[in-house]
Amino acid sequence: MTQHKQRSWFAIAGILTLLLTSCSPVDSVRPFDRQQAALLIKQNTHFVPTREWISIQLPQPSHWQRINQSFGTTNSPIMYIPRGENRDNPTESVQTDLSAYIYYPHITAKILMEKRAAHSKQACQTVTLNILQETATHLTYRLMSEHCMKRDDTVEIGKAFNGADAVYVVYYTANSHSVSTARIRQMTSTIALTTLRKQDKHFNPF
User: Is it the case that residue 40 has pLDDT exceeding 70?
Assistant: First the structure.
């Protein structure tokens, strides 16, 4: 790549350079964003689009493969795992979820985070939960699970948003013994920069 092209790229990339830990640029994984925008919430007998959607920019897009988990439902429609790995036991993954207020009227980002920790405690002897950042609209957390039954030790970095119609969460999970500390730091930055965007008023997934 010429110096001129390099300068042009980094001018466009802007704040995304904060995530770089190698020579690879950070690109937006657009199919992930489009799938998020197509999330639906069932109200009465009808499905309606969510009012917001998660926008995430993953490093090294060619590293990831998309796994569709929708199975006709509205939660966790997709996840990303490294190419060539088994979806049931990947070394790392990125997933999303939502809890709609119509079904969980008292849910908040903090309650959802605590529920995830409680779920881990059912399968793991040692669970450590740390809040990395907390505001009125969102929180970022780190959940470490060790000495678990039927699964490896993991670290989960998540960001939960108090959205307009649901609590939205995006989380990165890594095998603590297979993924480097540098990689986990990189993905922690990626999750921290994830945003919740308002749905285009003209969007219609049907």
Answer: no
CA dihedral 25, 179, 140, 167 (to 10 degrees): 90
CB atoms closer than 10 angstroms to residue 167: 22
Tokens at 119, concatenated: 């779920």
Tell me the per-residue pLDDT of 45-90, one tens digit each, with 9 for 90 and over. 666 778 888 888 888 888 999 887 665 554 446 789 999 998 888 9
Please choose, from the candidates 64, 81, 28, 65, the residue with its C-alpha nearest in 3D space to the C-alpha of residue 194: 28
pTM score: 0.77
Residue spans of the domains in the chain: they are 3-198
For residue 143, name the pLDDT band (cuts at 50, 70, 90).
very high
Residue type, 125: Q
Domain 3-198 classified CATH 3.40.1000.10? yes
Alpha-carbon span 174 to 114, nearest angstrom: 19
